[in-house]
Amino acid sequence: MNIDLTGKIVLITGATGQLGRVMARTLSRCGAKVAIHYMSNEAKAQELMDEITKAGGEAMIVQADITREEGVREMRELIRAKLGNPDIVVANAVVQYEWKSVLEQPVEDYVSQFDSCVLQSVFLAKAFIPAMIEKGRGRMIGINTECAMQNFPHQSAYTAGKRGMDGVYRVLAKEVGPHQITVNQVAPGWTISEKDRGEAELHDAAYIAQVPMKRRGEDQDIANAVAFLASDLASFITGAYIPVNGGNVMPAI
């Protein structure tokens, strides 16, 4: 059984990031045409597109501020003109910031997390789901986090943004389900990616001690989960929050 996305068009926001770039490569290998979104790293976006096209895939790059509705609409028009209307939208981009305690965290960081987690999801839905409704199928996949269940110190802004995102996705799943559109979330744990692969701190004893599988996951593990949810194999899965973290957090019934 193979994951076949031949003929499908996918948008990945934050595709130049550590997890996003592996998603782009993976979905392309599955046959999808990939819209590589970036905010500021144009060089990496171009490099990623060149890598995909050299391997025989089809891709484009598109710059947008995903915290602005106008920026998301402009991105939609650029993708539509070059590739067509996306069948799959992966909300992976998020604003990075320094984590501090609630008492020390600047209010601006809560705003940035709301904008890049909640409003990004809303703007993407408004921009891309109408075309999915016309097709009678589609996939919305949000990249959440295990932090949304952990609520550890210094995670407040990130956790608040991702928990708000979770609410949007669960409601959206019920609203667009009749159109055969699935809406799901993948929640990575502390994942090994290109920036830290092979370094000593990969073996963080304190974190690994909590993980039932006694290791950290790889960026490819996250991309594999996204590819599965994007495919027809997951056509009857919607409204799910799926941790990919070796069992470090386990949603309860």
Automatic annotation (TrEMBL):
One Pfam short name: adh_short_C2
Highest taxon above the source species: Bacteria
GO biological process: bile acid metabolic process
Stored InterPro entries: NAD(P)-bd_dom_sf, SDR_fam
Keywords in alphabetical order: Oxidoreductase
GO molecular function: oxidoreductase activity
Protein family per UniProt: Belongs to the short-chain dehydrogenases/reductases (SDR) family.
Name of this protein: SDR family oxidoreductase
